[in-house]
UniProtKB/TrEMBL annotation:
Belongs to the protein kinase superfamily. CMGC Ser/Thr protein kinase family. CDC2/CDKX subfamily. This is Cyclin-dependent kinase 8. Keywords: ATP-binding, Kinase, Nucleotide-binding, Nucleus, Serine/threonine-protein kinase, Transferase. Transmembrane segments: none annotated. It catalyses: L-threonyl-[protein] + ATP = O-phospho-L-threonyl-[protein] + ADP + H(+); [DNA-directed RNA polymerase] + ATP = phospho-[DNA-directed RNA polymerase] + ADP + H(+); L-seryl-[protein] + ATP = O-phospho-L-seryl-[protein] + ADP + H(+). SUPFAM superfamilies: Protein kinase-like (PK-like). It comes from the Eukaryota. One of its GO terms (cellular component) is nucleus.
Length: 352
């Protein structure tokens, strides 16, 4: 490209600092870069957008994968999916800025507050209406993504990305990072997209999906459903259901003994009659060598949730069980979950 043309184009390009005030307003930092709370400099306001989240992407320039992800983000429009409003490119320093809707609070703060209260022996139960509304809105956002053949893949981090404002509208933040959590499914089949080993290693460290921990090489919509089940369980109990300290995960191998042990300690050891394809998992032989079924005979989701006063005859438990099926092929879909009887009984979920 002609140098003079590049300089001329850069000079004509709108600069983020000309439109928004954000100096000294950093509100966070993630793997993708810095996050600032921004306001328009011209003083104009929109009842729905008085403040914005401005994200500076670290690195120099845009990779092809980043361009594809931004293009996808700009196409997704749903009340429960955070909205990417604009992209700013800075030619001089090769910075990339993404302008999103701003949400004052996030679900992680709710979870953190209730965890701390429980740890201090002063538990504060998350109100049933809030649990149901948050879960329904998360499912609505995921159903929209899945309907458009997009997987979130990083829903385990939804606690720090699922936000609500004064109207309590929940948003799914679609992460922008070098690892590309979002995937657009180019084929319309139940199982798709062969994973690279690096993808699998990263996702299995942060997502306790049993099929990925056992070496499954394909993503399906079921990986997001398992993550939603984990979120639902924590909203009900105020503690992570399959907690395994990140520092304990020292291997880059998708197979992780301690994480599997934690899952089995809650769910029980998977039986072939319940998960027929488990014997086809790449690490099935290692699983059978490293674990003794008898060690988990007394473990079950029923017993785990009963300790948290969630009885098996409740509709909440019934839905949780459908979300946390060990066999990914048997997990409920987001659409089916939204139609579950749990959402038909009082208190009813709200869309706001």
């Amino acid at each position: 490209m002609d140098f003079e043309f590049k300089v001329k184009t850069a000079a004509q390009r709108t600069k983020v600092e000309d439109l928004f005030e954000f100096e000294g307003c950093k509100v966070g930092r993630g793997t993708y870069g810095h996050v600032y709370k921004a306001k328009r400099k011209d003083g104009t306001t929109d009842p729905k957008h008085t403040e914005y989240a401005l994200k500076q992407i670290e690195g120099t320039g845009l990779s092809m994968s980043a361009c594809r992800e931004i293009a996808l983000l700009r196409e997704l429009k749903h009340v429960n999916v955070i909205n990417l409003q604009r992209v700013f490119l800075s030619h001089s320093d090769r910075k990339v800025w993404l302008l999103f809707d701003y949400a004052e609070h996030d679900l992680w703060h709710i979870i953190k507050f209730h965890r701390a209260a429980k740890a201090n022996k002063k538990p504060v139960i998350v109100p049933k209406a809030m649990v149901k509304s948050l879960l329904y809105q998360i499912l609505a956002g995921i159903h929209y993504l899945h309907s458009n053949w997009v997987l979130h893949r990083d829903l385990v981090r939804i606690f720090s990305s699922c936000s609500y404002r004064g109207t309590c509208v929940t948003f799914l933040l679609l992460f922008f990072s070098s690892r590309n959590p979002l995937i657009f499914l180019t084929t319309r089949c139940p199982s798709f997209l062969l994973l690279t080993s690096n993808d699998c290693q990263h996702q299995c460290k942060t997502m306790a999906r049993p099929e990925l921990l056992l070496g499954a090489r394909h993503y399906t919509k079921a990986i997001d459903i398992w993550a939603i089940g984990c979120i639902f369980a924590e909203l009900l109990t105020s503690e992570p259901i399959f907690h395994c300290r990140q520092e304990d995960i020292k291997t880059s191998n998708p197979y992780h003994h301690d994480q599997l042990d934690r899952i089995f300690s809650v769910m029980g050891f998977p039986q072939e009659r319940e998960w027929e394809d488990i014997k086809k998992m790449p690490d099935h032989d290692k699983l059978m060598k490293d674990f003794k079924k008898a060690s988990y005979q007394s473990c079950s989701l029923i017993k785990y949730m009963d300790r948290h006063k969630i009885k098996p005859d409740t509709k909440a438990f019934s839905l949780l069980q459908k979300l946390l099926m060990m066999d990914p092929n048997k997990r409920i879909t987001s659409e089916q979950a939204m139609m579950d009887l749990y959402f038909k009984e009082d208190p009813l979920p709200t869309e706001e």
